[in-house]
Design a protein that fits this description.
Blueprint (H helix, E strand, L loop, with lengths): L5 E4 L5 H12 L3 E5 L4 H15 L3 E4 L6 H15 L4 E4 L14 H29 L2 E6 L12 H20 L5 E8 L5 H14 L3 H12 L8 H12 L10 E4 L7
Parallel strand pairs: 1-2, 1-4, 2-3, 4-5, 5-6, 6-7
This protein binds nicotinamide-adenine-dinucleotide.
The site of nicotinamide-adenine-dinucleotide has 29 residues, from helix 1, helix 4 and helix 6.
Length: 260
């Protein structure tokens, strides 16, 4: 059980982050939600989670492309929940184009949100975790933190960077009761992937269902999507005492993608 633990999950108003927030709350952790979306819907999500799992759930809409906002979000988590024991750096965006056509502003935004925010989050949270001599940092990288695909130069660079930053933070905190790991999902059917499927269907003159099959066949021996619930279950395990000596590791949950 994670009763008494306080977790910040960035980018948790949707997709994988929401799956992780739900899974941590189900184990009794209090949760700070973050991410964009309709204010009314987010407030309903917050109160629904509180009611369903009888834990405190807070929300802050910090824009993680801004370094000072990341540090402030970590502080707000401590103010609202009393501590920060589990940090899940999950917020991320995608954009696809060949290198020579890749817009510079998209490169900057992806590096800021997918990579730099992970650094700023860890930098802000590690002192409090060290003081308590307990902490769990879970960085959501990707299969693209380990291997490449075309048209994803910024994303692949950022996710490889996340895996590297994870290893450094892990070895620095190895004797402070803190573990730092990266989860590397393959395909998960979230709004981030649904947008890619729609673009692909438009380009190929097909439909989303056809592109789903093709997308999986291109990269994953196992022809099914992982779910936000499954990523949440892995985050719960990494937060548990059973995972106390797993640190500095990129953990694939990808239907065999990077193995073949
Ligand atoms: P999603 O689009 O469903 O959710 C992204 C979340 O991040 C949302 O809550 C959004 O509001 C938030 N966000 C975006 N920009 C933000 C910003 N500047 N500040 C604060 N919050 C911001 O996407 P997802 O698929 O759930 O992706 C979550 C993470 O998982 C990302 O890091 C992504 O790269 C990674 N990932 C996804 C897949 C997949 O197949 N879906 C695979 C591997 C890794």
């Amino acid at each position: 059980s994670l009763k008494g633990k306080a977790a910040l999950v960035t980018g948790s108003t949707s997709g994988i982050g929401l799956g992780i927030a739900r899974a941590l709350a189900a184990e009794g952790a209090s949760v700070m939600l973050n991410g964009f979306g309709d204010a009314g819907e987010i407030e309903k999500l917050r109160t629904d989670l509180e009611a369903e799992f009888s834990v405190k759930v807070a929300y802050d809409g910090a824009d993680l492309s801004k370094p000072d906002k990341v540090a402030a979000l970590v502080q707000k988590t401590q103010d609202a929940l009393g501590s920060i024991d589990i940090l899940v750096n999950n917020a991320g965006i995608q954009f696809t184009a060949p290198v020579e056509e890749f817009p510079e502003a998209k490169w900057e935004a992806i590096i800021a949100i997918n990579l730099s925010a992970v650094f700023y989050g860890m930098k802000a949270a590690i002192p409090a975790m060290k003081k308590k001599q307990w902490g769990r940092i879970i960085n959501i990288a990707s299969a693209h933190g380990l291997v490449a695909s075309p048209h994803k130069v910024a994303y692949v660079a950022a996710k490889h960077g996340v895996v590297g930053a994870t290893k450094v933070a892990a070895i620095e905190t190895a004797n402070d009761g803190i573990t730092v790991n990266a989860i590397c999902p393959g395909w998960v059917l979230t709004p981030l992937v649904e947008r890619q499927l729609q673009d692909r269907a438009k380009e190929a003159g097909t439909d989303v269902e056809t592109e789903k099959k093709k997308m999986l066949q291109e990269t994953q021996p196992m022809l099914k999507f992982s779910t936000p619930e499954e990523i949440g279950a892995l985050a719960v395990f990494l937060s548990s005492d059973g995972a106390a000596t797993i640190t500095g590791t990129p953990i694939s949950i990808d239907g065999g993608w990077v193995s073949h």
